[in-house]
Amino acid sequence: MFKNLIIYRIANDWQPNAEKLEDALEQERFEPCGATQALSAGWVPPRGEPGARLLEEIDGHWLVSLRLEKRVLPGSVVREHLDELVEKIEQETGRRPGKKQQRDMKEQVELELLPRAFTLQSHLRVWISPKQHLLMVDAGSLGKADELISLLVKADTSLNLHLLQSAESPAACMAAWLMDGVPPKDFIIDRDCELKAADEMKAAVRYARHNLDTDEVKAHLTSGKMPTRLAMTWKERVSFTLTDTLQVKGIKFLDVVFDGRDKPAKDEAFDVDAALATGELSHLIPELVEGLGGELDFIGQSAKIAAEHAPKGSATAAVEAHRAPAMDAEAATEAAPWD
Question: Residue 157: which of 14, 19, 336, 23 has the closest Cα?
Fold first, then answer.
């Protein structure tokens, strides 16, 4: 169901309304690329069945899916046609087109070739947990996730999102776990890891299927290399790789998760898979964040920074100094509803 998760916090003032969101998604339903259209993006049924709902609600969790279609023009094909056009003009006029003219010609060639280009499709799955005020994107990179988030916020302008961040640096925590061999409760360190130096050389060491409790690994850490990826397992139920940007990659559900479960019928497979994945991961994520020192309090941090940078003695400084404790208290009472 999910391979990677990039996690966003939804602001506490968001009022979940599945019907309203689905109506908004309907306005941006996927349409295939037109003849001269290089890229098309739109929402499709996450169940993968024509005519199904654009928003599936399973055990209180919402699932939506974005389809991307791109026309692919190999660079070699474009260059070949451009060279032919340049040669033709040179033969007819006795003058070779300049660089600016060739750039314009290249755009013309691409436009002419687009209708004949083949298309590639990809999908990005979104999981929203209204109870926890979390939104997760199954994407391998922040760039892809950000594109999806832009389209989703366009559909629901009340969504105020920011990347979930932990109070302590994931890289520093991973380094400490490797040094002392003591990960957070219910987590174990597996056998894959990447360490990278922070200097301009960016020297990196990668371990695959390797014992990480060694003097060699600790020597790399002592010399200044920091973990950028670390493979872990949670409660012997889910294995994954944690990154230094708090992304969860390579998610795999282990055999114990499926023990005692009958193979679902074909028409029930989606619901069963969705319930299993969201059920397991909705517990894993808060425990992982807790192991990283808890979630960073953006509200309290913003108030503190504003107070520190306001001119001393100013009305703004006085107001912010007064507001900061209140905002911290409010943030504490409106803490992330993990459970």
Answer: 14
